[in-house]
Amino acid sequence: MCSCSFSRKRLNLVFIIENPAKPTTFYLLLYKYPLEVSREIEYHSLMTVITRFPPSPTGFMHIGTARTGLFNWLYARRHGGKMLFRIEDTDRSRHSEEAVQAIVNGLNWLGLDWDGDIVSQFSRSDRHAEVAHELVKTGKAYYCYCTPEELEQMRENAKKEGRPTFYDRRWRDAPPSMTPPEGINPVVRIKAPLTGERIVQDKVQGDVKVNAEQLDDFIILRADGTPTYMLAVVVDDHDMGVTHVIRGDDHLNNTFRQNVIYEAMGWDIPTYAHLPLILGPDGAKLSKRHGATSVEEYRDMGYLPEAMRNYLLRLGWSHGDDEIIDQEQALQWFDLENINQGAARFDFDKLNYVNAHYLKLADNDRLADLVIDLYKLRDISVSDIGRARLLARMDELKSRAKTLVQLADDAEFLVHGIPFEFEEKAAAQLNEDGKFIVKIVRDRLSALENFSADELEILCKSIANDHRDGKLGKVMMPLRAAITGKASSPSLVHAMEVLGQEEVSKRIEYALEKFA
RNA sequence: GUCCCCUUCGUCUAGAGGCCUAGGACACAUCCCUUUCACGGAUGCGACACGGGUUCGACUCCCGUAGGGGACGCCA
Length: 516
Fold this sequence. Notes:
The protein has 516 residues and is of the alpha/beta class. It has helices at residues 63-78, 97-110, 125-137, 148-160, 229-239, 252-265, 295-300, 305-314, 327-333, 348-361, 364-377, 384-392, 394-400, 404-415, 424-429, 432-445, 453-467, 472-484, 492-514; strands spanning 2-6, 11-18, 25-32, 38-45, 50-53, 82-87, 115-120, 141-144, 187-190, 197-202, 206-211, 219-221, 244-248, 271-275, 278-279, 344-345. The longest helix is centred in the C-terminal third of the chain and has 23 residues, at 492-514. It binds one RNA strand of 76 nucleotides through helix 4, strand 11, helix 5, helix 6 and strand 16.
């Protein structure tokens, strides 16, 4: 199969070649003009792609977890595959239903779904133990009777001598003379390779090499018979048929250990892609002190899920110069090749910009509902009339705001009743000069044929001409203060139209009375 | 202490040895629009961490240095 295309700078000849060694696998080759080099740009497999989303039940969904989830989801969906959902609750004490629910809620909010049931790692511990014992039987793993104190001592000594801080393998090939001490339940350790270069092939980081001397015989089964994380992930990923492991950079080192288990069991190693971490605005690891770290906090700050997805996607992944990438586009474009290798800082300015963009595109009814939800948190109840006003001005409102919270602030005067508060700058507008103008407006309001924005504007302009040298602002500012209680607002004449003559008059009377 | 990874405008990034006088976006500044605040439009400011190689030619490849991040648990 061959296709040909022109890009800005080159002629592409694409050959899809079957790999005879793996009949279900195809390579996509790209030839650059002139035909000097060929480069494998993509690896397509006809096997179903299976990714996984394996959060720890921490009680909330970290923004980094969300991004990893998004990447896994996009990759699976892009390739017509599946994303599995597994709770990493090997440490059962951490497990709680609420914690799982929090993650599910986060995923739902982001609009990501998964295939099959949520798998609890804890529920599979028998299987994990079975694998551990099988490895002992085949001589790939062994029992170790060291106490935590002894291990601590080893680490200290190693550090002092400048060696890796590892277990010294004293039970690895224990001679028969070394009888197990009484009363100690052994752990199971795996036999890691002693020498040679170990390579992890990573889709993001490339080939990562480390000497076997840096790997120790890590524990796969604890003294109480429960599996460690290292064993559990490998067994579960294998049993669940995971083909692509897309996860945070912090697991890159673990990968060498996990591969030891894969090899000992003779299992296929999945394709790895390790994503760089998200840093806070100051370059340090994103943490609580940077403000929001969980997706629900971003929701509460007024960000739209589609904006969040777009922003998170662009944080570390790119498609040329494209910035606004909606879900549909992302599904067509997403790949592992264009993930950046360096960690990225979280930038609220950019998020705001992206959010403002999606706000403009969002459906008005949906936005009204979201804003009304926000008002509930402020103990403001919105009547049907209030909702209708919101809707009537939504096109303008959504074009101005960066977040739903801003939109809600902007629109609050449309839904609140009398009495209402005046902010300081608004109060200042209602001085003698201001009240003078407001009274003139009030007196001439009833003469309007239609209480419409156009006529209101004509009226205000004529008042400005008569009393303020044609300076419209001198009329609008005090009027705005009287009607909204604020010094800035969306288009006042349009807002007045929506509020209606009766409500406008009431508010003017209320303001004049208050600042009498 | 040991090992691993990373490094292009303030930030996110484009860049696949000559297309680079390094492109885009956010932020910032100025101007325009304007009843306010925003939105929008235009223009501007602004970077290849440093030092060595390789090459006719390096942002791009290699090696060092510096800086940043990560991992070294009977946590996940």
